[in-house]
Amino acid sequence: MNHKIAPSLLSADFGNLKADIDMVNKSEADWLHIDIMDGVFVPNISFGFPVLEYVKNLSQKPLDVHLMITDPAKFIKEVRDSGAFMMNVHYEACIHLHRTIQQIKEAGMKAGVTLNPSSPISLLEDIINDVDMVLIMSVNPGYGGQKFIEHSIEKVKKLKELINNKNSKALIEVDGGINLTTGKQIVEAGADVLVAGNSVFKAENPTQMIHQLKHLD
User: Fold this and answer.
1) Cβ atoms within 10 A of the Cβ of 165, count?
2) What is the tally of helices (H) and strands (E) in the chain?
3) What phi, psi does 154 have (nearest 5°)?
4) Annotated active-site positions, please?
5) What ranges do the domains of the chain cover?
6) Angstrom distance (rounded) from CA 16 to CA 4
7) How many CB atoms lie within 10 A of CB 178?
């Protein structure tokens, strides 16, 4: 399996953030996943761009920034300046999604689109060739530690089929309830990137857990 691992900073110890980022730097993780929440689009608030600036200066991994906010297009410049290589916006939050994708790419970043658990894959048919990645939420966005939604496996299979049928190069990322069991199921279904929060940062040995998630064969 040749998939990527993106530990989710949302589950890190914010009282000891530098140590957790250092751990990720030294691990086999490929990216660092960062969730920005506004308390409006999702029922929680995480952190803003000053914290992201701090993270940029510490992280040696590419920053995969997931905006769970209303009107994310307003913050393209801030996300770019914070060092993100991937800006991920929710389909449900973008009225003019194609324009937003164009603006993200014009800013020099890769563009990702996220689908909530209740949003069908069919919504992406007209945009799949324009995006670099699709993030499937396998829990309801807003909180870490939720139970994996089993239907997400079939959803990944449908997305993989759409990507192949349209000759798209989009990656498939999955976030929510990822552990050694669900991670293997999701990768076998066609996922390219696993976002793991609690399973990594709450593990007795986070570095070893990242290694195990990276090598699920």
Assistant:
1) 10
2) 8, 8
3) -65, -35
4) 35, 175
5) 4-214
6) 25
7) 29
Q: What is the pLDDT along the chain (217 residues), one digit of tens a residue?
A: 689 999 999 888 888 999 999 999 999 999 999 988 775 666 666 677 778 888 999 999 999 999 988 889 999 999 999 999 999 999 998 999 999 999 999 999 999 999 999 999 999 999 999 999 999 999 887 656 668 999 999 999 999 999 999 999 999 999 999 999 999 999 999 999 999 999 999 999 999 999 999 999 7
Encoded tokens for 156: 């990944």
Identify residue 131 by its one-letter amino acid code: V
Report the distance separating Cα 179 and Cα 193, nearest Å.
13
Annotated binding-site positions for substrate: 8, 66, 142-145, 175-177
Residues placed in the known binding site for a divalent metal cation = 33, 35, 66, 175
The CATH fold of domain 4-214: TIM Barrel (3.20.20)
The pTM of the full predicted model, rounded to 2 decimals, is: 0.94
Contacts for 133 with CB less than 8 Å, ≥ 6 apart = 86, 88, 110, 111, 112, 113, 170, 171, 172, 173, 192, 193
Burial class (CB in 10 A: 0-12, 13-18, 19+), 207: middle
With residue 81 as reference, give the H or E element that holds it: helix 76-81
| Tokens standing for residue 208 | 């070893």
